[in-house]
Specification:
single chain; about 180 residues; mainly alpha; two-stranded antiparallel ribbon; two-stranded antiparallel sheet; 7 helices; 4 strands; about 55% helix; about 5% strand
Length: about 180
C-alpha cells in the first residue's frame, strides 16, 4: 500500500457519483441473458481458450485469474449491452486486466496491451475462435413487445438516481450542522 492511497477516503463521498455505475450494472445484470452452469461446458470453454481447469489464467496477461471478464460489456455508454453472462462472453481474467479493460471493446484492449505484437495476435486469434464457437449475439432491446417494460425500467432507475441525489443533499445539510 502507498501512503497516498488514503486520499480517496479523505474526500467527500457522493452516493450518486460513487454508486451510479453500480446501479447501471445491477439493472444490466438483471436484464442479461444467463447460462446454466455445467462443469463440462466450462471445461470445454477453458479448453477453447487453451487452458486447464486446475490452472486458470488471465486470457490477457497470463497471470493467475481471479475473476471473469465480459468480452462484450453489459453496459455500454449507459445502455444495456445485451450480450449477457454466458459462455462465449465470459473469459478468465485477473482483477488488474478486468479493471483496466472495463467496458472497452476487447480487441482494442488487447491491441493496447504492453506486449509483443506476436502475443497480441495469438490472444486475438484465440478469443476470435472462442467467440466464433459460441456465436453469441446481443439481445434486441428495440423489440416493440418490451418497449413499455424497458421505459418503465428506465423510469425506475431514474427514480433511484433521483433518490440518491436527494440523499446526497440531505447529507450535506446534516454535515453543515455538524461542522
Amino acid at each position: 500500500m502507498k501512503i497516498n492511497s488514503i486520499k480517496k477516503y479523505l474526500l467527500p463521498y457522493s452516493i450518486l457519483a460513487n454508486r451510479q455505475t453500480t446501479i447501471n450494472h445491477a439493472f444490466a445484470n438483471g436484464l442479461a441473458r444467463t447460462g446454466i452452469y455445467e462443469e463440462r461446458d466450462v471445461k470445454h470453454a477453458l479448453k477453447l481458450l487453451g487452458q486447464v481447469p486446475s490452472k486458470i489464467l488471465c486470457v490477457y496477461c497470463g497471470k493467475k485469474a481471479d475473476t471473469w471478464d465480459h468480452l462484450h460489456a453489459l453496459v455500454l455508454k449507459g445502455e444495456y449491452g445485451g450480450f449477457g453472462n454466458v459462455l462465449g462472453n465470459l473469459v478468465p481474467a485477473c482483477k488488474k486486466c478486468n479493471g483496466a479493460k472495463g467496458n472497452k471493446e476487447w480487441r482494442k484492449f488487447v491491441n493496447g496491451l504492453p506486449i509483443a505484437d506476436e502475443s497480441k495476435q495469438k490472444i486475438t486469434h484465440q478469443l476470435e475462435q472462442y467467440v466464433e464457437y459460441y456465436k453469441i449475439s446481443p439481445c434486441n432491446f428495440s423489440n416493440n413487445a418490451i418497449s413499455a417494460n424497458l421505459k418503465n425500467l428506465d423510469r425506475i432507475k431514474k427514480d433511484i438516481f433521483s433518490l440518491m441525489q436527494e440523499a446526497d443533499e440531505e447529507i450535506l445539510k446534516i454535515k453543515k450542522v455538524l461542522e
